[in-house]
């Protein structure tokens, strides 16, 4: 049996191996890859008067990361030097900021669930109409990475963080003071548009500052915020509406947003080595500090033309779909079964999956890194698909089985409170053992060629499935029952596992084949 401690002791040598491999691949493909990537900037970021970029084979200079607003140029950095730009403490601070930022959007979405009837009463409408705002929220969550992921490549991570957290806070306060349904819906939508940016941009920050053998752990910490929000949001919302107005939920979110803005303004540095804007300025020989560049907001969907990224996107989408099948029955099924008549008591059921989400995000990231190191030692090279082996048991076994047991325990009212609570915890734990691995895979495997589009496209398709799950789960429960609905969700999960297993078996070959077909000079691994 492999000892994780022995593997951890060899981390530095493995990182050196990974770095040298990346450097060799980069040097072998420098001429062609640079030409392809630079030539792609013009049609994608189509500046009206911008001439064709200089595609000479010289190394592109790197901006000074210690100056957040600088276009100053320094010597190119190797991968190893790039990962050493920031101290361990600074990296942890960046991860902390990304994690609490990722907490805000799901908190905004889910915290209102116990308050639906109260919000409906305020606007003289029905709970069904108010629930439509959650569907709209999920749609805007899908649109968000299409906009902010390309902008973060163009202008930097810090720029996107500050813009989005500022307007998220403004949108939250406007939801709180809404006096009619129109303003409530509009500003709920803008809250999702700005608040969801931190998912994909946070993943890009992890890729900027950590080597591949440490990214899973960093991704796990970042995901802890986004996964805990859906679980503790209803608890906090239930507490608030039990003792005060639903509007206080959004006052609280505004305050949290301003705290994150302050932290980001003073402590979040630019982590990207060089932005696309800086490349444009360099190739135009311009002394301008800022250039506005048009971009295609749907270009991140083009990343899904690569089968390995499409498989990863479909797999993570089934996880998001199943999450709503797990959480939706709580208010409509669990509360009546156990005679939970006050919002706070029903909301406490969300703590079970919440604790699972929280603990799983840390374990899943570390285990994904462990698995990658293990296979680097076996193969003497890094293959990004190897980290996906860490999800085989939680994805292929734990999640489908716990979903089925959970659904039928509620349907037959067997096992009391204990059985569904245990199943929710195990399901939540397994889910966030999977997400860090898939997210890190999207970054590791393709970011050299697609920038932030790989992870952005993954989040876009994931949120589309979240919107579908939100829309069909309750009607499905009403028509065929919670048992069969959860069985259907388990089948969807098995389909998602099939996609991820195809990536484990064939992802490396597919990735290289389709990169070459799209003009990239890739060294066979």
UniProtKB/TrEMBL annotation:
Protein source organism: Ascoidea rubescens DSM 1968
TM annotation in the entry: 93-116, 128-147, 159-179, 185-207, 219-243, 249-268, 309-332, 344-367, 388-409, 415-438, 459-476, 482-506
Chief location bin: membrane
InterPro entries membership: MFS, MFS_dom, MFS_trans_sf
Domain Major facilitator superfamily (MFS) profile: 94-508
Keywords from the named record: Membrane, Transmembrane, Transmembrane helix
Membrane topology qualifier: Multi-pass membrane protein
Pfam families in the record: MFS_1
Listed GO MF terms: transmembrane transporter activity
Protein name as it appears in the record: A Q resistance
Keyword Nucleotide-binding tagged: no
Subcellular location: Membrane
Cellular component, GO annotation: plasma membrane
């Amino acid at each position: 049996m492999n000892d994780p401690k022995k593997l951890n002791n060899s981390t530095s040598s493995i990182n050196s191996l990974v770095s040298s491999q990346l450097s060799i691949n980069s040097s072998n493909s420098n001429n062609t890859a640079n030409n392809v990537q630079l030539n792609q900037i013009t049609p994608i970021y189509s500046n009206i008067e911008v001439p064709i970029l200089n595609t000479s084979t010289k190394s592109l200079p790197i901006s000074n990361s210690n100056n957040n607003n600088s276009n100053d140029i320094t010597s190119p950095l190797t991968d190893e030097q790039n990962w050493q730009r920031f101290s361990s403490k600074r990296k942890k601070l960046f991860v902390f900021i990304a994690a609490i930022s990722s907490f805000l959007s799901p908190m905004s979405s889910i915290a209102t669930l116990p308050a639906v009837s109260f919000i409906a009463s305020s606007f003289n409408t029905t709970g069904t109409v108010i629930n439509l705002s959650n569907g709209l929220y999920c749609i805007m969550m899908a649109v968000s990475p299409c906009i902010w992921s390309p902008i973060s490549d163009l202008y930097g991570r810090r720029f996107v963080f500050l813009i989005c957290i500022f307007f998220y806070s403004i949108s939250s306060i406007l939801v709180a003071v809404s006096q009619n349904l129109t303003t409530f819906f509009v500003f709920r939508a803008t809250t999702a548009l700005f608040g969801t940016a931190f998912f994909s941009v946070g993943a890009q920050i992890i890729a900027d500052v950590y080597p591949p053998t440490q990214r899973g752990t960093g991704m796990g910490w970042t995901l802890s915020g986004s996964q805990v929000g859906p679980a503790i949001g209803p608890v906090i919302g239930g507490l608030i509406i039990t003792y005060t107005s639903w509007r206080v939920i959004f006052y609280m979110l505004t305050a949290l947003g301003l705290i994150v803005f302050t932290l980001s303004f003073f402590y979040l540095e630019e982590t990207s080595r060089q932005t696309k804007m800086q490349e444009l300025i360099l190739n135009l020989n311009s002394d301008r500090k800022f250039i506005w560049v048009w971009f295609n907001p749907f270009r991140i969907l083009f990343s899904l033309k690569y089968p390995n990224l499409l498989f990863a996107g479909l797999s993570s989408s089934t996880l998001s779909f199943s999450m709503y099948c797990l959480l939706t029955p709580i208010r409509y099924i669990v509360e009546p079964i156990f005679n939970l008549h006050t919002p706070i008591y029903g909301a406490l059921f969300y703590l079970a999956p919440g604790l699972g989400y929280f603990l799983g995000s840390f374990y899943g990231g570390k285990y994904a890194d462990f698995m990658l190191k293990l296979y680097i030692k076996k193969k003497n090279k890094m293959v990004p698909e190897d980290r996906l082996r860490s999800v085989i048991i939680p994805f292929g076994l734990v999640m489908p089985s716990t979903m089925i047991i959970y659904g039928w325990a509620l349907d037959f009212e067997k096992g009391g409170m204990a059985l569904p609570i245990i199943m929710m915890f195990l399901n939540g734990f397994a889910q966030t053992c999977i997400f860090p691995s898939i997210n890190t895979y999207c970054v590791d495997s393709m970011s050299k060629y697609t920038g932030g589009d790989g992870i952005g496209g993954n989040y876009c398709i994931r949120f589309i499935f979240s919107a579908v799950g939100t829309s069909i789960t309750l009607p499905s429960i009403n028509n065929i029952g919670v048992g069969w609905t959860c069985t259907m969700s388990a089948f969807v999960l098995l389909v998602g596992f099939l996609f991820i297993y195809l990536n484990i078996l064939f992802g490396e070959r597919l990735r290289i084949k389709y990169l070459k077909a799209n003009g990239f000079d890739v060294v066979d691994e």
